[in-house]
Amino acid sequence: MNNLNSYWKPFNRADNPSILEVVSGQGVNLYDKDGKKYFDGYSGLWNMPYGYDDEDIKNAIIDQLNTLPYVNPITINYPKIEELSQLLCRILHKDIDKIIYTCSGSESNEVAIKLARKYSALKGSSRKAIGVVENSYHGSYYGSMSASTYEGKLREGYGPMLSGFVSLPMPFTRDFKIDEFSTECKEKIVSRLNEELAVLKDHLCAIIIEPIIASGGIIPLFDEYIRALYEVCQDNDILFVCDEVATGFGRTGELFCFQHFNIKPDIITLSKGINNGYLPLGATCVTKKVVQQFINNKEIIFHLSTQNGNPLSVAAALANINKMLQDNTLEKVRENSAFISKTIKNDLCKFNSIFDIRCFGMMFAIDIVDENDKPIPKEKLSELMQRIYSLGCIMGSAYVEGITSAILVLPPFIATKGDIKKLSKIISKAIIEVNLF
Ligand code: PMP
To answer: Distance between CA atoms of 407 and 357, rounded to whole angstroms?
Structure first.
């Protein structure tokens, strides 16, 4: 039997015992060695809308493996990569002109950061600063980690970080539930933002947003906030970068979250849902304006990893995206979203410990407070999560001091009503069992 103790899991202490060991996956479920079934209410790590054994995606990978398993990305092209690039350009927006492939969301954001700074330099500008929204997560490589303020304490000691990131105020307060933010409250947030932008705008080459702060607790950026950022970008030739790593590919009920806001980001970063998680793949999607600046200056893009644009990953993405376009997936996401929201609100709102349930498409945060209406401590949240696991359901959590303590639910799009009812009942039972009602 494997010695599982040799494995140091990402984002874990080396001595953390594993909560769960599984041996197989089928549909929306994982199975341990004793055959116990776990419903995966977290879609892997938010990247498996079609679950663990989608035949179309598996077959696309197998066919590609038998035809052309790898090519050198610097020198060689192949038809499927052009097909995927054209498809992405078509479903993003009309100004997107080129797709750069990566192996992860973090890497996609590294490329965005490099492009933004180089674009500024090519224009002859000295602007290098990049605006990032407080409590956002953009990845764990040095650039994307430096751009992230989520879990700031955990980054201590790894420095020096990449310099030049400036934090913008998060559009959130615990004074209201998310659906009850008043116009006045929003105006206050936007006016603070505008004051900061007025000072920063001459130094910024880009602003990067997660349109819904995901790891930080499913906190959507509201319309007026996004518009303020977008307008300052447009008026000052600051690149507007939309990190759609978590929100892309249908998760919010549109193919991409920016499509809810009638905006056209200059750079869009993708990964996760791009190919149903079976193989590593990400993309940085770039508008003509940026591409042209590189062409005019006869500049290459200084970015390469040997596995960029791997044919197996690309074949899986084509199968996945075509399925999404043909299967009426967005309609299913919207229907599921409404059903999940109704079910968990019905089952959970009776508990005094539930402060709010934040829903956006198929992204949900169940925000839990103690008897003083403060987010429950990290340890209590861990205890609750362990209980949920042992009851046969997998989901995640977000703990951000002073901001939120929440269960995160991002189920696969193919989850049935029965799966959702089960998930909701398990959360309810776990809340009672750990005395959080
Ligand atoms: N951006 C966002 C918005 C994310 O949610 C994540 C992953 N949680 C990343 C970037 C990093 O992606 P990856 O883990 O694939 O590097």
So the answer is: 10
Q: Ligand 1 center to residue 343 CA distance, Å?
A: 28
Residue 360 Cα to ligand 1 middle (Å): 18
Atom of ligand 1 nearest to the CA of 271: 15
Quote the pLDDT of residue 19.
Answer: 81
User: Best substitution site from 148, 219, 272 to test ligand 1's pocket, by max atoms within 8 Å of Cβ?
Assistant: 272
Measured from the CA of 106, which atom of ligand 1 is nearest? 16
For ligand 1, whether the C-beta of 271 sits within 6 Å is: yes
The finding on whether 308 has its CB within 6 A of some atom of ligand 1 is no
* Alpha carbon nearest to ligand 1 atom 12, residue: 105
Question: 77: how many CB neighbours lie within 10 A of its CB?
Answer: 10
Q: Which two three-digit tokens encode residue 185? A: 């409250």
Question: Which two structure tokens, joined as six digits, stand for 58?
Answer: 């598996």
Write the CB contacts of 100 (distance below 8 Å, at least 6 apart in sequence).
Answer: 111, 283, 284, 285, 286, 301, 303, 308
Q: What is the pLDDT of residue 247?
A: 98
The residue ranges of the chain whose pLDDT is under 50 are: 1-2
The C-alpha angle with vertex 280 and arms to 23 and 118, in degrees rounded to 5, equals: 155
Nearest CA to ligand 1 atom 1: 138
Q: Is 106 in the pocket of ligand 1 (CB under 6 A)?
A: yes
Ligand 1 atom with minimal separation from the 141 CA: 16
CB of residue 138 inside a 6 A radius of ligand 1: yes
- pLDDT tens digits, 4-51: 589 999 999 999 888 899 999 999 999 999 999 999 999 999 999 999
Beta bridge partners of 192: none
Query: Is the beta carbon of 246 within 6 A of some atom in ligand 1?
Result: yes
CA distances for 37 relative to 15, 123, 355, 410, 412, angstroms? 26, 56, 30, 18, 16
Cα–Cα distance for residue pair 196/182, rounded to 1 Å? 22
Residue 222 and residue 171 in contact, taking contact as beta carbons nearer than 8 Å? yes
Does the model's pTM come out above 0.85? yes
